[in-house]
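INPUT
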Amino acid sequence: MWTNSRNQTFRVLKPWAQDLQKYTGRLVLGFCFSVVALASGIALLGFSGWFISAAGLIGLFGSGVIVLNIYLTGGAIRFFALSRTVARYFERLSQHDAVLRVQSQSRVRIFADLRQGSMDSMKAFHSGSFVHRLLQDVDTMNGLWLRIFSPLLLAGLVTFVLSLLLWFWSPWITFGVLGFMVVCIATCLRLMHSVASLGARHHVLSERLYRRTMDGLAGRDELWCWGQGEYYFNQLAYLRQRIDRLHQKRQQRVRRANTIIQIAFYTAFLWVLAIMAVVPTVELASVPIALPDLGPASIVMIALLLLAVSEAWLALPDQLSLWGSILAAARRTEPQNDKQLAEHQLSLNERDESFEGLQITELSIIHNDRPVLQIPELRVLNGEHLAIIGDSGAGKSSLADALSGQGRESKWITWQGRSLAQFTDADCAAHIGYLSQMDTVLNGTLWDNLVIAKRGLRVEEANEVLALADLSGWWQGLPEGYHTRLDDESMPLSGGQRRRLSWARLLLRNPQLVILDEPFYSLDHDTRVRLEKGVEDWLAKRTVISFAHDIQAVPSPHRALRIQHGKLIAHE
Amino acid sequence: MRNTESLTAEQRRQARDFLQSLSVEVGSSLGWVKLLAALVSLATVGVMIALALLLAGVVQGDALEAQGQRFFVLCGAIGVRVLFVWLHERAAERLTLEIQTTATEQLLTHWQADMQHSVTAADAIKLTTPLDALWPYFTRYLPQLWLSMITPLVILALVFRLDWIAGLFLLLAAPLIPTFMILVGFAAERLNTQHFQELRQVSRLLTNRISALPLLKGLDRAEDAQAEVATTSEQMRLLSMKTLRVAFLSSAVLEFFAALAIAAVAIYVGFALLGFYTSGPGGELTFLVGITILLLAPEYFQPLRTLSQFYHERASALGAAALLLNPTSVDASKERTVLAVADREVMADKHYEPVHESVSNSVSKSIRAGLMVKSLKIGYQQPLLNPLSFVVEPGQILALQGPSGVGKTTLLRTLAGIIPPLAGMCRLNNLPVTRGNAAYLAQTPLVIEGSLATNLRLAAPHATTEQMLQALAAVGLNDWLEGLPHKLSTILKAQGANISGGEARRIAMARLLLAAPKLVLLDEPTASLDEDVATSVRRTIESLRHTDRIVVVASHDPALIALADTQLKLERIDVD
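OUTPUT
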């Protein structure tokens, strides 16, 4: 739905760019102030460095080594201190003034666009939230210049000009600085690309959350009466959690970009320092590059100049992370955006694919041409633990098979909005952990039996899951430890040990959906209690559906259903 | 930022308390973030000292071995700093997630637990925008505040050890900065409050003109409105600029003192190295000390500069917190004031007689089946009505009458068990009313985003397709359903945006038929429906009677009241 094609990005930003264009003069003025402010900051540090190094040299070696006009240099330092402050103040004022003018212009443009819409589409304006969001979007678009274009241009321009000036001392310094700049720009563009898609998803989920919260709050009393309140609000909590995770992802991208830029900067910085300050002292003809012959004062100055430049780049990733929200805002405010109108128009032509969690619709389990279990609809929330209780032959295991993605009926089940029929084997393995009633022991060593559940298994992990599955006593007693062969002849396993081995394999994996068919089958009471305790934490984070003949035989669920006469009813 | 300007002192205090309690709850993560921020700061100082050593070596013309060593020390220091920055940002991400999860949980629990305070759909915004604005306060502002106290102290101590005159420069510059910032900040605040009313008016006008666009267009006045939008926007810009001009001064002051102090330190160090000072520490100042001080001076001001950038994070977090705490809906106290107004109107109208006593005569303790209400006092903290006693038998319909605001809705919610009664008792078949026994349909029918089947199954999770079709037919929706392309899988939009009010009401009635609760409580079920729909709703209510349900309905609809077996006229509590 939200594709990130470059053309589309240009198209949605075009009207905003045109608004900016009308105030080019003012924007350029503000930009000039920011150039002056940054350049003054760089010069202040550079001159100070030069001044004290020159003074130091004279102090050490006498006045013959270097020409230093104290009053000129001191004056320059004072001047740059002042010019930086003044330029920074006027930069902020003129940038904001220009952007507010652009904003004012954009408001009028959007109003004019809205006017052109049909009467029908205008009905949406009656909802306060629509208008509120629209105006908020216009506010967000301020960032297009202030947080994206202007800082990027500024950092690029100042770095480029400075690197050219440094050519005067040595081209090798310039190469270092330019290399740094190229890495930074590439990193920034990549960051922008990834936050753009995150921003779009964030927006879709936020809107969904908002709509559903409105429903839930408006109908809170009725939901309460039907006993659905907790269920519904839990669903909202999970939706919110997905949004938070997206946000975290965005922060992670920013952190990655930050780290790359820092490493690039310090590499360039150390490179320049090395060729200026360390390598020249090596009296070797083998150094292949023409090294600069710099005075010590210049070296100190260049080092400080570079430090000052880094400030412009290090702040960038954080500012650029707004790009996602800006693009989303631009898309929403697109004139006559079909999607925007469709959202507020009457439409009864969609199917519900947005449920988070597990959903079963119109599923029947048929044994010998006779339907044994029919489920018109069943929903399990992300993170919910559901128990389904039923007698043997009630269709439990068939349902468990279907839920694992292996059954005939899997096509009637969706997980996170995707039908299980579309799941490849790899998808099933990644998403679903199924503990069936069949405990399999592979012919091979104990290690072979564990490593099939996880590639690159480490011994500590194996120890840990065996302990959780209450098998540590057993395997430590094995003659060859992990290398013991578990063949039926040499080392027959009891039913309970097989069950626990299946558990250990399950615990090695990281599925979000866990299907347990008679999880504690063939275990004595004490073992069961220990195992239940061991797997508690692992289960807590996941969606769990357990099947058993008796409510006592499953880990304590949030909700329990019973199969009776081929239907699911609440367990009393 | 615009959020906070409108807060009263009381709201500000509450918002601050809320943020405070939240920060206590995430204490350990916050501690990590603060610790790592401090480590980053210390690592920066380390990098600067390593760099100073290397540069001093350059100036003194030291030998290769020494320089090579210093170079690797610098590499190491930089490596440590990059690592700490990375760790710090990662800790901040975790803290963010924790803040958002905690706040979500609190909000949702509050919504579910506190049924006394009514909420409206407008509260939904709380779960999105304000929750997204909370985290920067914790991950940025609070650690930076802490940092701006310790980093300058560390650097100051270091510089004082190296050279006390340079230390004095920094020390003198430091207190000046907050002083001036506060002075300028006060001016900006005053200006803000001055402009606030105007600013709010123009922004309201803007919102209003967009909402009114259909009307304006119908009257052919959209052109004028557009001109109005243009002038209003311009006004907004001028007002904002007036405030910004002063507000930016405060950061300019900070910049100015920072730049001035760096310049002063540089010049002092330069002159000392040239041998201008013979007495005091300046006389023995070495180049190494000089360059170290110069490199540390900007770092001394950096935390404060960053803090001033993050200052608005605090403002927006306060705004968000106030929004989260703000009860946008009617709470009990407000409801009473509304009622007091309604009451005066009723006093004139002698039509409403106190009937609770006559009804109470019919209460017989021998009745086991049915709804029995005895000396029931309802309200939120204070009773709204005189104690009520009545009995409704299965298959009977009780109509509640009374002026709007008298407490009909409160009575229905109390009977449903949503809110507890103040006193008295309410029993259904001689048992307390429990969830699942009673169904309360509010004035606006419940519609959730999702399929029609999902909406129906809210009441009966295991209803089959046939049962649902039957129920829809019973409420007269079969023709409508025939016209839907996806039948029961049709998606209903949030707030029932793609169906009519009549359809929503009838879906709610169908739900009632599917769930079969013993007690049915209806709040104005036929209000604002056209006659055909109202008739079918009344027919459905009538049909409930034949299945031995107990129906209590609050209504002004004479046709519906006529159906009732008993009528109960409610009057407000005697005020004396």
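end of record. Residues 361 and 412 of chain A are 6 Å apart (CA to CA).
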